[in-house]
């Protein structure tokens, strides 16, 4: 057995186990069963995912992300903000960062608007699929977006699971976002997350997809610097982006990230 030091972080209620591997390797990512157990809310620490902070040549750090099911995941926007906050707590105090995530390089910076907020530049979105009653796109992770007249009576886990496992997405799965159809801002977004296989309080790549779908549904004109506030069950986030038809660039996911607690356990 060996002693594992861990840290628990959350970004609008999306919570993560953070492990510092900047100087030595604790986990190599092959420990699927262990990672799943660590994320279990009854038999482990409890989290929506686990993140390894580790060095990578040419970058300030690498964010190696694992879903609660123990498998490596795709990009996690809330997790990225938590990773930047974690790196800062370990002494990597900079005004901006260049790091590597599951979907490639990203920039990050401290927010000039709100204390305790971090801003992550997301990957460009160059294609949006429009169905009869949905939008589908990849914002670093695949996301299905559907607008609803009301959200609070919706069974997010039942409806989300049905879409996530239907024939269209069965091969690789998708995250599912239900968005308030009201034109007023902030948007309200409820998300079912692939890999967690449950509703989470917030999803960074999900609110990014919801904001993009909103601009298309309401036919916002092409312009730089569109700002869309988004309300999740775990708190408020903000998306800023440049829009040109169905192409989106300079997408920044902005929101809080903070340490919840830290501890040790034997593995």
TrEMBL record:
Reactions listed under catalytic activity: (2S,6S)-2,6-diaminopimelate = meso-2,6-diaminopimelate
Top-rank taxon, per record: Bacteria
SUPFAM superfamilies registered for this protein in UniProt: Diaminopimelate epimerase-like (SSF54506)
Binding residues annotated for substrate, in chain numbering: 14, 67, 77-78, 175, 193-194, 204-205
Record: active site: 76, 203
Gene Ontology cellular component annotations, sorted alphabetically: cytosol
Annotated pathway: Amino-acid biosynthesis; L-lysine biosynthesis via DAP pathway; DL-2,6-diaminopimelate from LL-2,6-diaminopimelate: step 1/1
Annotated site residues (Could be important to modulate the pK values of the two catalytic cysteine residues) in this chain: 143, 193
Keywords assigned by UniProt, alphabetized: Amino-acid biosynthesis, Cytoplasm, Isomerase, Lysine biosynthesis
EC number(s) from the headed UniProt entry: 5.1.1.7
Entry-linked Gene3D superfamilies: Diaminopimelate Epimerase, Chain A, domain 1
Protein name from the UniProt record: Diaminopimelate epimerase
Native organism: Phaeodactylibacter xiamenensis
């Amino acid at each position: 057995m060996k002693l594992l030091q861990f840290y628990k972080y959350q970004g609008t209620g999306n919570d993560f186990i953070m492990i510092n591997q900047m100087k030595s390797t604790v986990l190599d990512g092959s420990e699927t069963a262990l990672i799943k157990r660590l994320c279990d809310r009854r038999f482990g620490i409890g989290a929506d995912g686990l993140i390894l902070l580790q060095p990578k040549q040419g970058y300030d750090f690498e964010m190696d992300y694992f879903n609660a099911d123990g498998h490596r995941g795709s990009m996690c926007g809330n997790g990225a903000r938590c990773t930047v906050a974690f790196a800062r707590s370990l002494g990597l105090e900079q005004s901006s960062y260049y790091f590597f995530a599951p979907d490639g390089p990203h920039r990050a910076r401290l927010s000039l608007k709100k204390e305790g907020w971090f801003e992550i530049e997301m990957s460009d979105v160059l294609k949006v699929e429009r169905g009869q009653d949905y939008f589908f796109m990849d914002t670093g992770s695949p996301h299905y977006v559907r607008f609803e007249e009301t959200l609070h009576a919706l069974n997010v886990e039942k409806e989300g699971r049905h879409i996530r496992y239907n024939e269209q997405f069965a091969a690789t799965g998708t995250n599912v976002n239900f968005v308030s159809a009201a034109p007023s801002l902030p948007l309200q977004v409820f998300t079912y997350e692939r890999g967690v296989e449950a509703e989470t309080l917030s999803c960074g790549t999900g609110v990014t997809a919801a904001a993009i779908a909103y601009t298309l549904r309401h036919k916002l004109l092409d312009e730089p610097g569109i700002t869309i506030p988004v309300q999740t069950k775990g708190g408020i986030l903000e998306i800023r982006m440049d829009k040109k038809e169905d192409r989106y660039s300079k997408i920044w996911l902005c929101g809080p990230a903070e340490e919840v607690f830290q501890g040790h356990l034997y593995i």
